Amino acid sequence: MRNLLSKAALTSWILFLSSWVFSAGFSISGATVTLSGSTQLSTSGDALFANGSLIGNNSSLVVGGSWTITSGSFISGTSIVTFNATSAGHRITSKGDPFASVVFNGSGGYWTLQDSMTALSNVTLTAGTLDTNSGSNLGIAVAGDWNNNGGTFTPNQSTVTFNGVSTSTSTWTGSTSFYSLQSLVPGKTLVFQMGSVQTVTGSLILTGGVGNLIRVRSSAPGSFAYLTNTGKNTVNYVDVQDNNAGGGMIILAGASSVNSGRNINWNFGHIAPSNALITAVYVSSLSATWDSVASEQGYSLEGSLASDFSGTRVSSVTTNGNLTTLMLFSSLASNTTYYVRVGSSWNDGITNYVNTVPVSTSTLANAVTGTQVYAVFASTATLQWAALPVSPLSASAEGYVVQASSQSDFSGVLFSSSTADVTLSTLTITGLSEGTTYYFRVGSLNWNNILNFAPSVSNVTLTGTAPPRSPSAIWGFLNSASDLFVLSWHAVTLNINGIASDLDHYLIERYDNLGSDPTFTATVTASTLSYSQTTGGRLYYYHVKAVGTNGFVSNPSDYVDSSPQANRYILASDDSSTRMLVPSDLVRELLKENNLYGDDIVIQLTHRPQDESTTILRSYNIVASMASTGEALSSFSFSQNTAMLQIGLSSSLGVIGSPARSGAPNAQTTALYWNNGSGFIPVTTPALASGSSVATATRNMGIYQVRQAAMSGAVQLTGGSPYPRVISPNANNNRRVFFFLNNPTNAAISGSIYDLEGAKVADLSINSQAPEPNALFWDGKDSGGVVVASGVYLYKISAGDAQLTGTIVVAR
Known about the structure:
With 812 residues, the chain is an all-beta fold.
């Protein structure tokens, strides 16, 4: 009987019979139907509430199809609605009208919610499936019990909320998997059937109130009920007993909750954050993440140089108890190892810490500057950069790596070269393809061997047709008796692209003055490696060029003069007044047959305009490298302090070269400084310069700068001296301490080392490797050559009327 309860029949029905059966379903349309007593209304079809009301009282309704409320209403009373369909495809639309108790008991039945469902009493799953609708994840609110006696609950990502009054009790029977489960009713009691397992894969939220806790209990005191939370939880103000949460993550109940005994994997006190990870590291900062423990006062991220976090700590703090990440901003030293931990803070002032994974990390080393392609051939390229200082360690690195790629993002095949020598400023990459554009980058290594790359540069490798290399080894000899000058050089065997050269001849050019036009030229065959000429007692300057059979001409060699000293001149490419004069006895050290490298050594003077300012007038890097590969020789120095370095000042004073600096005077007080690896030290005394040059005798390579300087007669230790302050005489490094002095009056310098009782230990020695004798050193040995004991020692340096004193440490 369909539509029996319709407006067309009566406007109000009261059904007194004990049982009403509608085989094809029923529809409430305009009528108000009241079920009295224990009336049972059942249908094997759908229940439709189109435009009327059904008052359930304490009756029983059995529906074999869907439940749909459109414009009508259902007033449940204390009725029980049972869905007993045995087929799929049924829907439940309650339109906000709650059930009292609802039962799903149809084997093979499948019901999908179309809107949120509320049960003022109980929900029972006996057979069939209740689906919360995967497209909408519709919630269910239950004031009473949840009974799973064999049915299936498909939670999707929905939330099941247990509400009711503060004194109510909800009991779970059977095991059910929920997505999110919550109860926010202070004073409510939640009873889980002994042995049952309630699984929450999303959020577990239980929040009672101060003095009115939510009670969590087992149905059999002394026996476990199981609550497995594999997602996250927010639990406060609960009283828990006999609950085993060991199958999932820790349930963090906090200090506001009560542990009434026999609980597993619950935490009722202060806890440290979990899963603390260092996620990113930079030059002066790092970041970390962790899992929230809902701390009352937030979190602290801390870094320390000590594993026990003693001494100075750097930290970042938040008061947000749900935050899961912080960063230590711009407060860390570069290339330095820090131990890291995260702490959760609580109202009683206690902070609970956990170490991160890993427990420590090194900040990145500073990126290098001044990256450039120093030399490029067909299959090799040499990169050059400004080397980082050796000390302090926080400003240094643990080495460098140079990479090359044909892709600007350095994907694909990488070519690389590396060194652990932080003083090195060039590396050569091999195995490149000719005629190919490559991108190059230089990375500085930190203590963890992590690279910090400087901006990349690019260049094209050379192809087969190229000029010869310039003669790299050239020297001369003057027979004073006959005025016969003999110029010699080593054979050129390669083109600049690294491919074997095919020479036609050598071209010799003679000059009356450096930088002028040649006044005489001559040629010799490709197999001839010398040229002789009578000078008539005049001073000339010679250089040689190699000429290939293809007509290409090499760059010129260095100049050699026809004086008895046969000096060799190495000129800067941008300024002929900047040069190094190398006398013949030192020139021999550059030849492959006379040095330890088995290769001719080339010296280049490279301008560093990026260093220059109103006080740094000129800056040049003097680099020695092997002629065949271009590999820099960071440890090379001449055996004697007789090479003369001259740096021209004309362009910096506004005469030639780059435009004059605004306000540059016509005369300036200048001094020449050299970078000794720990800092710049003066190697000339301040003097008045006016458009000429500054020169010094030297044996060392490195960066030299002409700086404005104040005229002062006081002898002083330069910045960074003594260096290092702690020495280890038996170690590979830091075996000696150096004292670099600013000695403008060239006063005589001497010094001694004393122990703490005033007994003299040894005299300081003149540092013969310094550009001029304004430096002393001590090797940690006494006057008899025996290494002294560990401890603190005094130094005393005398220079004219001045005396300098201080302490150093020996650590054996």
